[in-house]
Design a protein that fits this description.
This protein is an alpha+beta fold. The chain is 24% helix and 21% strand. Helix 5 (174-184) crosses helix 6 (197-217). It binds a DNA duplex (14 and 14 nucleotides) through helix 5.
DNA sequence: CCGGATGTTCACCT
DNA sequence: GAGGTGAACATCCG
């Protein structure tokens, strides 16, 4: 489920772990550890250490430990974070098996008996150690208009594909991009480098406002366009029929009348 | 039964 | 090199 907003909710939940001592590491699924150089030593590195701080860069959640190692958590499409039995987000898509222990892919146990658990039915997420952040663009929640202009400049690839490119701008996923472009009135198939200065400013303004507003509402799926994301859906603004295209490899819903 | 799904990575084309 | 496409990962949902 996560885009930047959901991972930010996870980060806030992970704040509960700050200051607590790690008593054990559970990594029952070797596939989930594919971003780790090796499983050996992970426990020795972390057990006895304390979680010192949390951070987030795009969709990457970071747990900084006192002795220096930084745990990187990626959640793919269906990863969730549960701390001490409390899910950071209660409403989710796989409700039937939400507590299925078989979906637990990674856990830290604390010496007070609590646990920080990543569950992920589809196993598209991963755990890494000291993740390389140099391949991530500026975080979308704090990107400046200058940085945004730079992220879009000099390419003929579509606006949609460029905004999804985590190496150019980190944090936006399929739902947020469609919502932001719809609000900004910009066509997703336009060349990213073709926006003029006023359009980039407009995009930046709607990007910021959308992130702030949907953060308050409860996540990426609370956008105004979201209910219309189905075949036959109509534009909430003009009631025109919405288009469905592939852009950036993802289903893209947009209004040809309002987005130019 | 089939296609699609809030993501990432890689092989393979053009 | 840039950009696009499709597959893979695994499970649930309509």
């Amino acid at each position: 489920m996560p885009e930047l907003l959901e991972v930010e909710y996870y980060r806030r939940a992970a704040e509960r772990a700050v200051g607590r001592r790690i008593a054990g590491v559970e990594l029952p699924d070797a596939w989930f550890a594919r971003a780790l150089p090796s499983l050996d030593g992970l426990g020795a590195l972390l057990v006895g250490d304390r979680v010192a701080a949390t951070d987030r860069h795009g969709k990457l959640l970071l747990l900084e430990c006192g002795r220096g190692p930084v745990l990187g958590l990626r959640f793919g499409m269906t990863g969730r974070l549960v701390v001490d039995g409390h899910a950071a987000i209660e409403k989710l898509e796989y409700a039937s098996g939400r507590d299925d222990p078989a979906w637990e892919r990674f856990a830290l146990t604390f010496d007070d008996g609590g646990r920080l658990v990543v569950t992920d039915p589809r196993r598209l997420g991963s755990v890494s150690l000291d993740p390389d952040r140099s391949d991530l663009g500026p975080d979308a929640a704090t990107v400046t208009v200058t940085e945004l202009r730079r992220a879009l400049a000099g390419t003929t690839t579509s606006l949609k594909a460029r905004l999804l490119d985590q190496s150019r701008l980190a944090g936006l996923g399929n739902l947020l991009v469609d919502e932001i472009l719809w609000r900004a009135g910009l066509g997703p198939l336009r060349p990213a480098g073709g926006l003029d200065t006023a359009e980039v400013r407009r995009l930046h303004r709607h990007l910021q406002a959308t992130i702030t507003e949907l953060d308050g509402r409860g996540g990426s799926h609370t956008g105004d366009l979201f209910p219309a994301r189905r075949p036959g859906g109509r534009c909430p603004r003009c009631d025109g029929s919405l288009r469905r295209d592939r852009a950036g490899g993802r289903t893209t819903v947009w209004c040809e009348h309002d987005q130019r």
